[in-house]
């Protein structure tokens, strides 16, 4: 089997599964319970929060545990908008964000907020100058992802953050789900107010995630109840998931330090071989994230290609796993202004540290066979 769908989800590291099972078995008590078992669980939760904060170079009380990227994005965007609507109801995002961001803004529009959707270039990149032009007196939030989940485009977050930091009442939210472990983004250096992470995109478990909320920033909670997570996310804590997230984060950051060049080389080799095929159009930028390659084969339905490759034990995808409005069309490529036939035939190949060069070679062989078969 060759798994090239890592942007949809990654295979959990064995160590992550082991620690999850251990904590679920030994620390099953509710951390809020007053007895000894509850106190032990609470201590482990506090230690885990501290360890994650150290890795992200933020304060422990800035770590809010979530169920993943979708919840984190919704809490950041809706929470900021609803909490601070009295000082402004204008929001800014890009036209190529993940569905959990785009749909969150669509929902806020129904509540009377005004949203500016920034245009992008051919490769889905936001111009920082457009961000500054869009900021108004009533703007309260800017949300731009660090790495596009379909194209692998790396957004100029540092430049955007420099701009937003000049507007005290404008918060900057960054969806860093696809970037963590592949594209560095140091929160101790870049003035980001809200940052979303997801466990299952960095070889952790589904249902785990973190939202970093900078000290002093208030959000309106989406979940009300017992006041967990500093009153921002009520509900009994998923302690095994928290510990598993910490383990996955540590392991993927270690691999980023030692092997990210290998991942870039893998992407370069893949693109080089794809460029030799006349039928293939490369949609991803030359200098993109090391793990995402988006291509089109005009005239061939992407779903058909995905299923044909799956029969050979090779797994790729068409676009974001969370997109479902159009079976073929990529909303991201549509925003990039590409031709209809390219937009409707897009395929996404996404790599991880668990892939190697031999898999790239096998994929190319199978891909060529599949194109020839479908053309016949």
Describe, in plain words, how this protein is organized in 3D.
With 376 residues, this protein is of the alpha/beta class. It folds into two domains: 2-8 and 259-375, Aspartate Aminotransferase, domain 1 (Alpha-Beta Complex); 14-251, Aspartate Aminotransferase, domain 2. It is 41% helix and 13% strand. The protein is built from twelve helices and twelve strands. The protein has helices spanning 14-26, 36-56, 69-83, 99-110, 128-134, 157-164, 228-231, 239-275, 302-310, 331-335, 340-343, 357-375, and strands spanning 2-3, 63-66, 90-94, 114-118, 139-143, 171-175, 194-198, 209-213, 281-282, 292-296, 314-315, 346-350. The strands form three sheets. Strands 2-8-7-6-5-3-4 form a seven-stranded mixed beta sheet, sandwiched between helices. A three-stranded antiparallel beta sheet has the order 9-10-12. Strands 1-11 form a two-stranded parallel sheet. Helix 4 (99-110) links the parallel strand 3 and strand 4. Helix 2 runs parallel beside helix 8.
């Amino acid at each position: 089997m060759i798994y090239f769908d890592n942007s949809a989800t990654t295979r959990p590291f064995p160590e992550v599964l082991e620690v999850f099972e251990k904590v679920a078995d030994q620390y099953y008590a509710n951390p809020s319970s007053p007895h000894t078992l509850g106190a032990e669980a609470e201590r482990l939760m506090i230690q885990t929060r501290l360890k994650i904060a150290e890795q992200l170079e933020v304060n422990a009380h800035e770590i809010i545990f979530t169920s993943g990227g979708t919840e984190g994005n919704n809490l950041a965007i809706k929470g900021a908008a609803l909490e601070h609507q009295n000082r402004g109801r204008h929001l800014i995002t890009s036209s190529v964000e993940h569905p959990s961001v785009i749909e969150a803004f669509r929902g806020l529009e129904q509540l009377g907020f005004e949203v500016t959707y920034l245009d992008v270039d051919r490769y889905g990149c936001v111009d920082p100058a457009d961000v500054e032009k869009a900021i108004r007196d009533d703007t309260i939030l800017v949300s731009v992802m660090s790495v596009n989940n379909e194209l692998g485009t790396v957004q100029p977050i540092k430049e955007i953050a420099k701009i937003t930091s000049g507007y005290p009442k404008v918060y900057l939210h960054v969806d860093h789900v696809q970037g963590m472990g592949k594209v560095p983004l140091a929160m101790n250096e870049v003035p980001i107010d809200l940052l979303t992470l997801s466990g299952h995109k960095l070889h952790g478990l589904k249902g785990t995630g973190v939202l970093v909320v900078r000290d002093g920033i208030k959000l309106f909670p989406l979940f009300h109840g017992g006041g967990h997570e500093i009153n921002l996310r009520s509900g009994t804590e998923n302690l095994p998931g928290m510990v598993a997230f910490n383990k996955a984060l540590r392991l993927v950051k270690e691999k980023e330090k030692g092997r990210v060049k290998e991942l870039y080389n893998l992407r370069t080799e893949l693109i080089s071989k794809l460029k030799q095929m006349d039928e293939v159009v490369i949609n991803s930028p030359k200098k993109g994230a090391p793990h995402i390659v988006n291509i089109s084969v005009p005239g061939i339905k992407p779903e058909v290609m995905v299923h044909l490759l799956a029969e050979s034990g090779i797994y790729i995808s068409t676009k974001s796993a969370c997109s479902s409005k159009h079976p073929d069309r990529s909303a991201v490529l549509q925003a990039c202004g590409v031709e209809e036939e390219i937009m409707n035939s897009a395929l996404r190949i996404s790599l991880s540290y668990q892939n190697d060069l031999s898999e790239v070679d096998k994929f190319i062989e199978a891909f060529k066979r599949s194109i020839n078969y479908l053309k016949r």
